[in-house]
Give the backbone structure.
Amino acid sequence: MMIGLRLRNGCLVPTMVEERAQTEWEGTRFYTRYVGICGSDLQRMRLGSSVAYLGHEAVGMAEGMGPVVLNPNVACGTCEQCRSGMENLCSHERAYGTNVDGAFRGYLDVPEQNLKPLSACLPHFVLCDSLAVVMHAINLSQRFGSSSRHPIVLGDGNIARLLVFALNRRGLIPDVLTRTGKWPHQDLLEANSVGSYEDAGLDVEGKYDLLFECVGFSQARTLEASLRCTRPGASLFFLGCIQRLISCPYGCARFSSSSTGSMASDRFYARTLSRRLDRWSYILMSSRRLFR
Ligand SMILES: [Zn+2]
Ligand SMILES: [Zn+2]
């Protein structure tokens, strides 16, 4: 028996979990050590979830592998997107903590390719999931040919902070629109606050050709602000998750803009780990208060 945290009436309740033989997948047994709680989890706690155990940002120990970070998104490998190398957009995706029980159950059976070996079992590696989303979006923005040196970021949550962190490392200081109109992390992450996305003013209207939306929650308003502050033909990247259908207020077609969502792909877990997170870990560790 081990202790899990089960979602009940919007709360995570300690529960005794009996360890069973593998049922869901042919996979390697993963034992949870650390789990991150992100904005998507908070929405699932508030609005309801199809699984009893949340937890998709997880670090733990895998049998025969040692310390690992979980890539929670298991692609089918056979649909059209998977076959064309866009497994992050798989039509039949199964994701731990989303539509399969997640890491708060205490143990999981995971396909080996979804476990990425770590140098050590440390809590900051739970950021790998968010950082993979961020690096994927930056990579997409370059693939779309955007050479903007002056991007704008909407939001100041974990994803927005990691994005500003990654942009700073590329020598870029983005403008930011936040809920409060302030950027409270200036001592560690450089960004120019240009107001609040609730009432993005005339001085930002039609100004940007590269935008990253990192809010998701109540996205209808940030979508409107995104369209308002970008110029025709701009590239817009949506890193937040839309939880319900919304109607587009301006008609994107008029802008001939390119917009895309960013779900982390498996490749970016590997790249995040090998090239970035290890190198950046000391900064992330010293910035711990930024990523509570
Ligand atoms: Zn998350
Ligand atoms: Zn697929």
Notes: The helical segments are 39-47, 80-83, 128-143, 158-169, 219-229, 266-286.
